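USER: Fancy drafting a protein?

ASSISTANT:
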Amino acid sequence: MAKIKYTKTEQKHQQDSLKQFNRFLPTLQLKKQQLQQEVRLSVEKLSVNRAARKEALEKLSGVLSFFCEPSEAERLTSLVGVRTIATSSINIAGITIPVFEKVEFADIRWDLLHTPWYTDECVAALKESLSLRAEGKVLEKQYQLLLAELTTTTQRVNLFEKVKIPECKENIRRIKIQLGDMETSAVARSKIAKNKSQKLA
């Protein structure tokens, strides 16, 4: 506990600090609750994405037999080019987090007459798998940012609840006792001085 001065000025400073902590604490607690809810939602979204990725891979494995030939695999993957991964951002509880929009694929065309019948299916499966993977990375980033902010906010709530507010209350209590003792002592000294002056008179 920091050293305090036993004065009325210090008492007022401690009371002002206590008021400030009590005013900010509900806001921090509200932010903590909101972040806890957002972290839960983020975990659910990640879980849904992982399940969808697993399903997409299973679908892809259905056409993977066509990828056995290295040259064929190369040809099919060359038909899928990622141009950009489009994201936006939103503000949640005071922090900016990325939001997945879509994967923009390069417009690669192929001759339908001179390519195997399974090309369309393979390309569609590859695009779906890549989109889900890109979305998963953004969701992971969201989760990490929300979790970091929740950790910081929880630490602040604990600091206010368990350290700062009890410390201020204790300091105010100690200052009041000390000031009371000093006042009592001053009154006693005053009476002694008055008695002495009366005896001398």
Summary: The CA atoms of residues 88 and 120 lie 30 Å apart.
